[in-house]
């Protein structure tokens, strides 16, 4: 399950190099795949996350993976999930989940995802709480 959570974080933060984070007038945090998707009144406050899907290459993450927990199945899981449109829709919906938004707002989590430092993630209580998130459990069941 930790592999699934890690991959969900990777997808949520690195789905596109031009993912923008913005907050509406009600205080809700949103993520948009391009600046054009951000409502005009919020574009000035929208911030690019600047995260690329290539930031944590398998070669770069293999050392971290071995030194923390066994995340060797992440690539396999990634391929399976990318081929499953239903799972991808569930993952996109998860981006609006308050728990996921809180994690994505944490600079330490973003740095850990970018650098492939999974030990930081598996020791983060908020990350571990996602294991009990109903949406995450649903995605996990789908990918079994």
From TrEMBL:
Region (Disordered): 49-75
Signal peptide (residue range): 1-17
Keywords: Signal
Domain of life: Bacteria
Comp. bias (Low complexity): 52-68
Matching InterPro entries: DUF4124 (IPR025392)
Domain DUF4124 as annotated: residue spans: 6-61
Protein name as annotated: DUF4124 domain-containing protein
Originating organism: Trichlorobacter thiogenes
């Amino acid at each position: 399950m930790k592999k699934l959570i890690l991959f969900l974080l990777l997808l949520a933060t690195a789905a596109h190099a031009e993912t923008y984070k913005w907050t509406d007038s009600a205080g809700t945090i949103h993520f948009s795949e391009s600046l054009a998707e951000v409502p005009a009144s919020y574009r000035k406050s929208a911030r690019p996350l600047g995260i690329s899907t290539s930031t944590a290459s398998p070669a770069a993450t293999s050392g971290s993976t071995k030194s923390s927990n066994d995340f060797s199945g992440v690539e396999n899981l990634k391929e399976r999930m990318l081929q499953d449109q239903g799972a991808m829709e569930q993952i996109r919906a998860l981006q609006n989940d308050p728990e996921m938004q809180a994690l994505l707002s944490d600079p330490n989590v973003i740095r850990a995802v970018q650098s492939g430092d999974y030990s930081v993630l598996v020791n983060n209580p908020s990350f571990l709480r996602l294991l009990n998130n109903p949406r995450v459990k649903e995605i996990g069941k789908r990918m079994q």
